């Protein structure tokens, strides 16, 4: 059945009756009658009942209005669509397109005009090595009030600090006079992020957006060739910082989903991935430590400029007291270079490295990150090495760019040996980060300790113990927590909660753990964890007008998270047209793995604690 309705009149009446708190949403916290008569232009009517169906109606009206329509035909099948099908369809049909950007004539206004612009001047920084981009963006200057700045040939931390008060977007790949597209996370994150992009790519491939997934690999390779690394994100203040390495996985998954991209493409991007491995991760004294394992080690000078006011309040007050000056005087003197303090330099080295890890922020890494061989990073680099071996043997007859597949196999096995020597805890049955300065494991319980399951480096004899630890220490009502409650209980009560820690859960952790459990054959545990996560996303979307945010409190199973930066993706009027990048992907990935019987229970919103 389809109803043809007048959009403005229906929208106004619906909000007046049901949106009792005036937030331009219909949620379970509104106190309306929860029943609205949808009136067709022919005079017939139909009662829409319940928060979920009413919010669906609101969303459909808002979508139609955004297209400039005054009347619209709304199928009841969309209003009364089963929750998991609606969420998945919105991701596939609406969200990915809304999150897609290009840095070119057609798309640049969406990026340079966002709320991160610090002045009326919109800056685009272009690599020294990309003369085509320099010419292209200079041609757009007058129309978009652009200031086009060519970066120096050698980008130093001193240079990056000098432009922190003149921040701007970094150009990405141009092809045939157009910007190669990419997906942004959403909300205030209006640029291409490092590890977010891989997880978004998993969702894109599932939704048959192969061209867009490939384009993101191409933009990663552009960053390596022109900026020297895959950037934390393509903003000028991220030039000294990379992110967790997922390029080899991204390459494998794109090529095997669509071999028509060609062997030449595979050879090109594989060559670039090997270059990144060698020049970013395997340089001794930087991200490669003396024991042969790796660490995060972001360069930079001073206080990270992207942080919100007050983020470092406790730290800066401590150092201001040490120097017997005010916090403002400390910041001014430290940023100008007049105040020298090795201890404060070291703190910010750890802080920038923590941000490079993607886990910004966590007590696991606070004031120690650059001293740690982390389980997550070394698992990812093992995956690089094993992927290089696989791609070389499978598609290049065992030799590529002077390397044999056996070489990559050998160094991958050597990494396992080192991880087992320094990180494996036989008594606890899991891997832990290793502090190479103190020469001891941290014993910090974290979701990142389970990346070895995803990377496929776990000894079969140890798998059962690892899975047992996972389910015992990190499983909560809504899925896997970023860290354990035991770790949270050790944090002094006067210190602020960190967003990557208990009780919060994040999409990339869930996706990697699901895949790890699948690889290792733990189907029962995988199904339970997928269901818990999808149920939490679904019930929050049902009760809160389709909300799909950046993260969740997995203990309370709610999107109402207040640690640090709030929760991106929860602020919108009428409808979210983007959700949040890797959260969208986790939903699509979870559904692709979920048992059909559990899918039915998901649509019936059956509490996971009743099922498991």
Secondary structure topology:
Elements: E1 2-6, H1 7-18, E2 35-39, E3 45-49, H2 51-66, E4 71-75, H3 76-79, H4 83-99, E5 100-101, H5 108-112, E6 122-126, H6 131-138, H7 141-144, E7 146-150, H8 157-162, E8 169-170, E9 174-175, E10 178-179, E11 182-183, H9 194-206, H10 210-227, H11 247-257, H12 263-281, H13 313-323, H14 327-336, H15 342-356, E12 372-373, H16 375-395, E13 399-400, E14 403-404, H17 405-422, E15 424-425, E16 430-431, E17 434-435, E18 440-441, H18 451-455, H19 460-473, E19 475-476, E20 479-480, H20 485-489, E21 504-505, H21 507-520, H22 523-543, E22 552-553, H23 581-593, H24 596-603, H25 608-611
Parallel strand pairs: 6-7, 6-8
Antiparallel strand pairs: 1-4, 2-3, 5-11, 9-10, 12-17, 13-14, 15-16, 17-18, 19-20, 21-22
Profile the largest sheet: 3 strands, parallel
Instruction: Give the strand order, joined by hyphens, for the main sheet.
Output: 7-6-8
Please state the CA-atom Rg, rounded to the nearest Å: 25 Å
**Tally of DSSP helical segments:** 25
Shape: globular
Averaged pLDDT: 96
Number of strands: 22
> Low-confidence runs (pLDDT<50, min 5 residues)?
none
- Straight-line distance between termini: 38 Å
Strand content: 5-15%
Helix content: 40-55%
Structural class: mainly alpha
Question: Notable features of this structure?
Answer:
single chain; 612 residues; mainly alpha; three-stranded parallel sheet; three-stranded antiparallel sheet; 48% helix; 10% strand
Structure explained in plain terms:
This protein has 612 residues and is mainly alpha-helical. It has 25 helices and 22 strands. Among the domains are: 2-81, no CATH class; 474-611, no CATH class. The strands form ten sheets. The chain has a three-stranded parallel β-sheet with strand order 7-6-8. Strands 12-17-18 form a three-stranded antiparallel β-sheet. Strands 1-4 form a two-stranded antiparallel sheet.
């Amino acid at each position: 059945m389809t109803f043809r309705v007048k959009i403005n009149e229906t929208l106004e009446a619906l909000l007046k009756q049901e949106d009792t708190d005036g937030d331009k949403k219909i949620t379970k916290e509104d106190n309306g009658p929860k029943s609205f008569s949808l009136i067709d232009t022919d005079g017939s009517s139909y009662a829409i009942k319940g928060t979920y169906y009413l919010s669906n109606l609101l969303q459909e009206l808002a979508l139609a209005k955004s297209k400039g329509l005054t009347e619209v035909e709304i199928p009841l099948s969309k209003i009364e669509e089963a929750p998991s099908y609606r969420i998945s369809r919105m991701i596939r049909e609406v969200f990915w397109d809304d999150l897609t950007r290009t840095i070119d004539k057609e798309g640049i206004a969406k990026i340079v005009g966002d709320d991160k612009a610090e002045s009326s001047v919109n800056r685009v920084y272009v690599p020294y090595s990309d003369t085509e981009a320099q010419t292209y963006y200079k041609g757009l200057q007058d129309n978009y009030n652009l200031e086009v700045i060519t970066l120096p040939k050698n980008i130093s931390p001193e240079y990056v600090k000098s432009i922190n008060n003149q921040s701007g977007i970094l150009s990405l790949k141009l092809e045939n006079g157009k910007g190669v597209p990419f997906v942004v996370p959403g909300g205030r994150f209006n640029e291409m992020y490092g590890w977010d992009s891989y997880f978004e790519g998993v969702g894109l491939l599932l939704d048959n957006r192969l061209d867009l997934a490939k384009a993101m690999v191409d933009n990663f390779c552009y960053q390596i060739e022109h900026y020297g690394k895959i950037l934390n994100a393509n903003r000028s203040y991220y030039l000294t910082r990379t992110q967790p390495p997922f390029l080899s996985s991204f390459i494998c998954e794109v090529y095997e989903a669509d071999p028509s991209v060609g062997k030449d493409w595979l050879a090109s991007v594989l060559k670039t991935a090997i270059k990144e491995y060698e020049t970013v991760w395997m340089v001794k004294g930087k991200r490669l430590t003396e024991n042969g394992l790796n660490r995060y080690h972001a360069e930079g000078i001073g206080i990270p400029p992207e942080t919100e006011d007050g983020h470092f309040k406790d730290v800066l007050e401590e150092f201001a007291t040490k120097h017997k000056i005010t916090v403002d005087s400390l910041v001014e003197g430290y940023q100008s270079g007049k105040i020298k303090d090795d201890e404060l330099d070291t703190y910010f080295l750890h802080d920038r490295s923590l941000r490079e890890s993607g886990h910004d922020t966590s007590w696991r890494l606070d004031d120690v990150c650059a001293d740690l061989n982390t389980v997550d990073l070394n698992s990812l680099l093992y995956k690089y090495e094993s992927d290089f071996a696989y791609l070389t043997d499978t598609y290049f007859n065992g030799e590529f760019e002077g390397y044999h597949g056996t070489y990559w196999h050998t160094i991958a096995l050597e990494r396992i040996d080192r991880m087992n020597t320094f990180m494996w805890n036989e008594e606890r049955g899991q891997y832990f980060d290793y502090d190479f300065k103190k020469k001891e494991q941290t014993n910090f319980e974290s979701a990142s300790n389970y990346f070895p399951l995803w990377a496929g480096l776990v000894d079969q004899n140890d798998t059962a113990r690892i899975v047992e630890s996972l389910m015992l220490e990190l499983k909560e009502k809504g899925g896997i927590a970023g860290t354990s409650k035991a770790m949270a209980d050790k944090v002094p009560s006067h210190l602020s909660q960190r967003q990557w820690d208990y009780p919060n859960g994040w999409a990339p952790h869930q996706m990697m753990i699901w895949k790890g459990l699948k690889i290792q054959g733990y189907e029962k545990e995988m199904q339970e964890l997928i269901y818990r996560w999808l149920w939490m996303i679904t019930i929050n979307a049902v009760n809160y007008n389709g909300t799909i945010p950046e993260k969740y409190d997995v203990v309370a199973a709610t999107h109402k998270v207040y640690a640090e930066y709030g929760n991106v993706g929860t602020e919108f009027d009428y409808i979210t047209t983007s959700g949040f990048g890797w959260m969208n992907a986790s939903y699509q990935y979870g559904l692709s793995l979920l048992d059909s019987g559990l899918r039915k229970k998901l649509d019936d919103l059956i509490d996971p604690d009743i099922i498991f």
